[in-house]
Amino acid sequence: MRAVCWIWFCAGAVTAADARAEESGTSFQYEPKPGISGNVLVEDPATFWERFKVVFDHRAAGMFEDQFHPLNFVNWEIQWKDRDFNHLSEHNAGMARHAFADAFRSSARDAALSLDLPGLEWLRERQGFLPEFLWYSLDSVEEQSVSPLNPSYRSVERSWWSELSEGGRLRYGVRPFRTDPYAFLSWRIKDGDSVWLLGNARYYFRNFGDHCFELALSAPIARGFSIDLGTSCQFGRHRLEKKAVLKLLKTFKSGGVLNVALEAQQHPTLYAGITVPW
Fold first, then answer.
1. How far is the C-alpha of 223 from the C-alpha of 242, rounded, in Å?
2. How far apart are CA 124 and CA 116, in angstroms?
3. What DSSP designation does 236 have?
4. Contact call for residues 116 and 44 (beta carbons, < 8 A)
5. I need a labelling partner for 134 at 20 to 30 A (CA). Which of 69, 122, 171, 217 fits?
6. What's the pLDDT tens digit per position in 238-266?
């Protein structure tokens, strides 16, 4: 409890500093990581390899940041439960390999989809349920980063919510080329320029008998705060399982992040952390 109070004290101090900066006419500069969100081919290189290099330079930064971010609470748990140095070094190496593989796959996909091939041009120019279904199934890479039951802060996931708030009202498709294929539907509720609610729902069909639904909701509120809710329900041949995570996020203009998460399972767990750049 003392640790949580200290975190809130730090958050209040940083928030006050941001407010004073606004009143004095000066502000902390925070530039979102370029390329963590979708369109990064600014100069539109000609060849596939040139396009791949441009995208990979941007995507790798976001993937590695998420894996090794100080507010990755999954890493906290591993470090506290098992302090064997060899185990931790193997875990870190595994995270690096995972980040590299994800960045490689998503960059190759983005580079391929940006080529002016006849079939891809037809999908980009057509409107309607089927063309959009096929395009969103191939594109919208950041949607795969949405992890409703992960209490950690994930910058790539935040970029997906940002892209969804500014893009089309609906995104839908399937992810068949995975070890855990699923169908997804993303939406936003907006009134004028104000976004009220963002949502992402998934359905997994596993082992020809198990079903799993995941729901992620994100509601932006004032002064950089947002409230996220993630829940899942699995049923079928195995026993019914329900999980939920409630998160309060605050992003500071200085680049800092406050993340407070409550994981509701059989034994509820509270996570809290704040990062402040020096």
1. 32
2. 10
3. E
4. no
5. 217
6. 666 778 999 999 888 877 889 999 988 77
